[in-house]
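[Meeting: bench + compute handoff]

Bench side (C.D.) handed over the final construct sequence. Compute side (W.E.) agreed to return the predicted structure before the next meeting so the bench team could plan truncations. Sequence as handed over:
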Amino acid sequence: MSNKLYAIVVGVITTLFIIFHSIVLLAASIFLLIISYIIYRNKQINIDNLYKTLSMSNNVYTYVENNKFKASVMFKLILKNNDNYYIQQLNSLINALSHRESSCEYYIINRINKRAGAVLLITAINDDKEKAEEFVINEAKLVLSLAKGVCPSLEFYPVGQSNVFIPIPSQVGNLTFTTITEYVPSLPSRNKILTTYEIELGELNDGFDNKIGLRLQDLTKHLAIFGATGSGKSTTSLKLIKEVRKKGVNVVVIDWHGEYAEKLINEEYILYNTNNPFKINPLSSSDVDDITEIFGDVFQLTEPQRYVLFSAIRNLKKVSDPKPSLLLDAIYKIDETSYWQREIKYALIRKLYLLSSKEARNILSEKGCDISALFSDIDKIKLFDLSFISSIKLRRIYTLMLIKLINEYIIKNRKDFITLVVLEEAHNYIIKGNLYIESLLAEIRKFNIALCIISQSPSSLSDAVMKNTSIKIIHSIKADVDKRIIRDSMSIDSELYSILDKLPYGVCILQAPNILSPVIINVK
């Protein structure tokens, strides 16, 4: 073979080899890119699946990780007192957790977003979802119990899961750092108080968690429960209702907004509402003066109008059984001797015309009402849901006259058991200047009637409420005028006065005859 042909063959072979090698490298590169893309997509899918498998129940957050269930709870750290030793306390907690023989993991995480803050994260892993959640809940309870002893300056509040995914590192250093930029005043504690009671309400804030409550004999001295919306008034009243029923107390609840039926779980009650109305005859009361006073306050009658109403009711009672439908006609028949008397009469008819409406006929009876039904079965709560009465004036008339008729029945029949009448949203009908309410509070305590007056604002109520309620339960109060009324009526010290607007949910100040001075309790 000539040298020229040899060179051509070698060149062709070399070129083919280079082309083949390039193709192999290109194919390998494409393969690696495909593999990398698949791995990336799998990681992305795993992260997406993390959110898809994330579930929440009772502040426990659970997701799937490596075919296992990981349950977590979180608590934000709040400084109760401006105490410079909270870091040492927190370090003591960290040291105690590090020596616990537990399969749980603990994280204290700082977050900086305009301001710095810290959370405690507790996690547990198990093959079974329910076991993982149960385990982390029990662990959280133990940690909180431990923290209560070693971190008295800190509060641990449960918090929710954010929508930000934060990876947890596999390794950490040996430096712990925590900052707390928010603190709430601590509740002042009182010395250990020994007192007798039959009706348990909750625990004292005395460092010993001693139980405390009310004496049964003090109920008829009347109760007042005050607090802003969401402070825990309803929870306290429900606790009171359940406890007094155990002692044989007959309970009647006037539910202004219709909220109690859902809350009286596992309690037996008779519900009076739009489907089962309890009709009353407001004119069946024997006391014409009180009827006139109640109608006068609700309809804002002038003194001349009250006199005409008084005369009409008295005339009705002389000639027949008084019926609400005949009241307007009785007013119309009142003699007129002058133009101004005619104006008074027709102005009164106009104001009371509401009593002839269809809504009024649904709640007012033409006959007498069977009040005895409220006392025939004292094992059941009598619950009046008044939310279906759209007219506020009709709702007020109905409520006040129902209280009046209950009072008259008990006085006449002298029951040997206590009847507790719970008056929700009392500021809507127990108003200032109502002579009937003032005399009622002062006189009925000797007839085994106990009133529980519940309101957001003591300043909106009749002054007689503060004077004639020996038991006062005060949840968080925000308005300055209400705080001053509480301070003056209960003679609380400056320490308690300063925290009136800072009481957490379910925590209240209790004053009762069996307690020497007002105390802070946690209603349980």
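W.E. noted at the follow-up: The chain has 14 helices and 17 strands. C.D. will use this when planning the next construct.
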